[in-house]
Design a protein that fits this description.
The structure is a homodimer of 358-residue chains. Chain A is an alpha/beta fold. Helices cover 41% and strands 13% of the residues of chain A. Chain A has helices at 33-40, 44-51, 59-72, 78-84, 101-117, 135-146, 188-201, 217-233, 249-261, 274-287, 304-309, 318-333; strands at 90-94, 120-125, 153-156, 169-172, 183-186, 207-210, 242-243, 268-271, 296-298, 313-315, 342-345, 348-350. Chain A has a 6-stranded parallel beta sheet, with helices on both faces. In chain A, strands 7-6-8-9 form a 4-stranded parallel beta sheet. In chain A, strands 10-12 form a two-stranded antiparallel ribbon. In chain A, strand 6 (207-210), helix 8 (217-233) and strand 7 form a beta-alpha-beta unit. Chain A is elongated, with a radius of gyration of 27 Å. Chains A and B meet through helix 4, helix 5, strand 2, helix 6 and helix 11 of A and helix 4, helix 5, strand 2, helix 6 and helix 11 of B. Chain A binds a DNA duplex (16 and 16 nucleotides) through residues 24, 29, 32-34, 42-49, 51-52, 56-58, 61, 76-77, 79-85, 147-148.
Chain lengths: 358, 358
DNA sequence: CTGTTAGCGCCTTCAC
DNA sequence: GTGAAGGCGCTAACAG
């Protein structure tokens, strides 16, 4: 008849767990739906109805329960809620690394969509996924969120081709050729081609290249474009002009150092991302090489810093990728079919001050 | 005897819910502990023991179960898990807005600590908390995470003085004078004082000020410092030199416009944050006013962009604030007592190229 | 319109 | 060393 609750009440507790002594009998707990029900003198299901704005509750009851909820500062447990109903109104974002301009831009784009769609956002990261990434770990994160607390997840630069999941999964900038699931993909080939053609149009013939992380598809595609464009123009591809970086400024500095130390140094450098380009700028300065007078430079990504540095680059619309991905996910959650399972986001050449005719 | 499962199996499902027709009988579900138990020919409790590394399981059983877990790609439901046991190994971060340099820096700091502590991070945001912030909403987010899926949460720039929560809560840069709970606080007064003294030391006497969001404590403290330093130096505080901004570049541009349009314009401007300083730079340019030749400029925060702009500013060590806050939270979760409930993070004056003697 | 009942997936006693 | 039973907080079906 009467529901017995074994737990003590704790408010404003800010210290750690004091389990150990009263382990079993007294345990901290927060206000539950039962507390609300008792206080309002109704059943739990009625409270649940109020919580979920069902319309089969009398106005009077609704108000009374609402008031009690307010007074008790009650807020339903996400865990319990999502265990019963598949609908949580939050979407998940699995990030390889939150400490990276690319990721931050994706977050911004996702966030923009979230606000529009009136969803909540849960970003999941273990801080250094990239260092030990694998398909199974990715699957783990997806399962963690999707089988529990989110209505769907967006995963950024995944290596997996497909995911097993109860709820929809959208990949943003997947790290494989032909993802099986819905994905937002960048046009790396076109972007890199544009960059190269821009340099060639300016009359550059000796063009250095600083590569990106070899485990990333985008890096390969950009290098492919570099080679292909040279090939098509009849300019020989020279190994000494191709450096292998890792998308980081520091490594790019070493690459730039090598390139600029060549007997016949390049008159232009295509850095496979903006952070690498930043490394080139730094090194060029120490060499007394002026940009763009002595050296033209093109980056890739168009991260916010690029504008400050007046860097010519390829805008990858990273923000838009997050935005579009979220919209796709939303449609899937709604049970709609996608017009485009693979959504391409166009790149744009942004000509700024680091390139000029030879 | 035999456990009957009413659900169908679905793998690699990427489309939306197809409930509606078989609503009750067939529902998508992921691999559960029961599936693992059946496949391994043991009971669920045994699987649970393996999952939690209990030592009362025979090596043989342990291995067999582990293998099945791998094969099935099973991963326990965060929701269900955290409903039974208080330990989830993930900490929560409640952000006012992920689309903001300050927030991004805090995330980076938290992330750094997370990696060290081998915890997982769940960042929660509804995208536009600042627009409708209130103590009750904050409490809502804290409860949402803490009563469910995290072992503790960090909340950034909260307005609440205290939180009711089962697990520990640490405030970072709280938006109130004397927070009741553990908090990491910036030394806004000292920082702003340093900025002003730097300008005075350079010989500036007419110093303009661009304020921040009036709902933020930090903005008030910085303004206080501005006035106090002038007072102590015997320079009259002039209202026409004090503009009220909102920490945003656009608004700061209007303020800068007004300041520079004065009959007797200031020779220096102290912008209450770097984003405001960026606005000043933009407007000064349109006025043909050179920085630092004609106008000295100091910002506050030292966001990454500040370095590119060669902006003299106050480094608030935002990153460190997130890091320290996370460490504090960790200690609380471990049940330890804090040496310092209020942890101050010192500010530093970073002199760059936007200030010089008058 | 409201209460009762039955689990969601998991962990934790308590038996054996 | 292992299994059975109960319940965490909640929602959804079914009665009334």
């Amino acid at each position: 008849m009467c529901i017995i609750r074994y737990y003590g009440n704790v408010t404003g507790n800010i210290a750690g767990n004091n389990t150990g002594i009263y382990q079993m009998a007294i345990r901290k707990r927060s206000v539950t739906i039962i507390d609300v029900a008792e206080a309002a003198g109704v059943s739990v299901s009625t409270v649940s109805r109020v919580l979920n704005n069902k319309d089969d509750v009398s106005v009077e009851t609704f108000q009374r329960v609402s008031q009690v909820i307010d007074e008790l500062g009650y807020s339903s447990s996400l865990a319990a809620r999502s265990m019963r109903s598949r609908k949580t109104n939050v979407i998940g974002l699995v990030m390889p690394d939150v400490d990276d301009p690319f990721s931050v831009e994706v977050i911004r784009g996702v966030n923009r969509a979230i606000v529009e769609l009136k969803y909540d956002l849960l970003i999941y990261t273990n801080g250094d996924i990239p260092k030990n990434i694998s398909a199974s770990r990715e699957q783990h994160y997806v399962t963690l969120l999707n089988s529990s607390i989110t209505d769907g997840v967006i995963i950024v630069t995944p290596v997996s081709r497909r995911f097993t999941s109860v709820s929809p999964v959208v990949s943003v900038d997947p790290n494989i050729d032909n993802p099986k699931g819905p994905a937002v993909i960048a046009t790396n080939l076109k972007g890199a081609t544009d960059a190269m053609e821009h340099l060639l149009a300016l009359g550059h013939k000796r063009i250095g290249y600083i590569g990106g992380r070899t485990d990333l598809l985008s890096a390969h595609l950009r290098l492919d474009a570099y080679k292909r464009v040279l090939d098509q123009t009849g300019i020989p591809v020279e190994q000494e002009l191709i450096m292998s970086g890792d998308f980081k400024t520091e490594t790019a500095m070493k690459c730039a150092y090598q390139l600029l130390s060549l007997d016949d140094p390049p008159t232009a450098i295509f850095a496979s991302n903006d952070q690498s380009a930043i490394g080139v700028i730094a090194v060029a300065e120490t060499f007394g090489i002026r940009i763009p007078e002595d050296l033209s430079l093109v980056g890739f990504d168009n991260i916010p810093e690029a504008a400050y540095l007046d860097l010519t680059t390829i805008d990858q619309n990273i923000n838009e990728m997050g935005y579009v991905g979220t919209k796709m996910l939303f449609n899937l959650i709604q049970g709609k079919t996608l017009d485009q399972v693979l959504q391409k986001i166009e790149t744009n050449l942004i000509i700024r001050g680091t390139t000029r005719p030879i």
